[in-house]
Known about the structure:
This protein is mainly α. It is 75% helix and 0% strand. Helix 1 (2-25) crosses helix 4 and helix 5 packs across helix 9.
Amino acid sequence: MSTDRRVRRTQKLLRQALISLALEKGYRAVTIQEVTERADVGYRTFFRHYGGLDALLQDVAQNVLDELGGRLALYQPVSDVDALTEKGAALFAYIRRHAPLFRVLLLDDSAPFVLSPVIAETRHQVENTLSILQGGRFPIPLVANHLVTATFGLMRWYLENDLPETPQRMGEIFAELIVQPTWQAVGNLPPAS
């Protein structure tokens, strides 16, 4: 049990060190030596956990995806705009709490190799969720792609503009600009009143 706790602690320290260094100097300028020094972890210990910095950043992204996936079912077809707004508000509250991490994952131009599989996995999950929409006007992969890319675009905008709105307001924007119009287009929501 204590070994698992130590492993989790070491991985957390390495993740935090990577994110702080990437924010300071850009992901591609960071070295393993700098990460281990910042985390106060031995250089050789790093390689017991990760094969390199790319593997560490991929672990960071996977942890985010797992946590968000466990907390939110963002794209469930529902007619309750308040429920969509609350889901969106929860997403943007999470982004606000973890803004440094999301700045690296979404805004650092040297990290798309990490974001691309996350987007693809999210798109796949949304396609599975939308499989209940048989015989819709639009192909399910197209709808899933639209929802995911629009959401990631809104997340980028939020970060690029230094979190200009509250999470609640961003939830409203998410629901009213992205999800609700999409459900209306595919025939799963009544028109907004």
